[in-house]
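Q: Could you fold this chain for me?
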Amino acid sequence: MTETQPIVLIVDDEVVVRDTLDALLSSEYQLYFAENGADGFALAVQTQPDVILLDAMMPKMDGFEACRQIRAMPLLAEVPIIMITALDDRDSRLQGFRSGVDDFLTKPFDSYELLARVQTITRLNRYRHLVEQRNQLEKAHRDLVISYDKTIEGWVNALDLRDNETEGHSLRVTQETLRFAKAAGIGEEHWEAVRRGALLHDVGKLGIPDAILLKPGKLTEEEWEIMRKHPVYAFQWLSPIEYLHPALDIPYCHHEKWDGGGYPRRLRGEEIPLFARLFAIVDVWDALCSDRPYRPAMQENEVLEYIKDQSGRHFDPALVEIFLSLRQPV
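A: Sure. Below is the predicted structure, expressed as structure tokens.
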């Protein structure tokens, strides 16, 4: 007998019936026996059976009352109950159904029919449990993903609060990058990775000292060396988080350039991950279209001319064409 065998609780005051069911079911099921309804109810609470075979007429507590009490227990309310009884009249069956019985077998029962009924109802009940467990796991997964995404949004908000100059930048570039990705033919299965990567693109700047990140003037070469580490910081912080692995390309590689002149790894051309190549165009477009303390926002047509000029140098030429087509007036 193994722990994986379904549990069958047999509640019947007749020894011959219990012995018959024992011989018929013991090879496939883990069996428990009770001789009356009261003991059967107590054993049901203890064993949490997969199916209950219940006699109707028993001492101390009949099968109908035992069924009502079983159904009143939340953990037992869905357990299938087959009533095996010599009562074969309409009123008894109605009473049984009202008490919560799922099926009836009349004594004397056919052994093969009983075995078939138990096998079928046990399989159905196990399947129902599996479906419920799967639904619970899926809900737990959805809740966990929502929690993770709220954490990401918290990181982004923290960065925006720290660097007022770029407030709202992360949300704007995220929306535009998703639009761009769809236009570029990126499949729906990748949209979450693009969205998370865009939101987190500058998270590494949390590791840059305020004196450098918030400096109003130009950075020295030494300060630029520190600033250029923020993609590496992002990779170091995010890579241990498995569910963010598909989103890493943008935070790590969005400062790489098509001609190999970017950082941190001086990747060139299609060595640069596609999501990062997409995002780099949007990032520069939003930055140039936004006011900064050291310069006013550029006009949209000037920004697009700059992006076109950087095709093949900073940006992927094929993606530049798609992006420019998206910015054309309708």
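A (continued): DSSP finds 14 helices and five strands in the chain.
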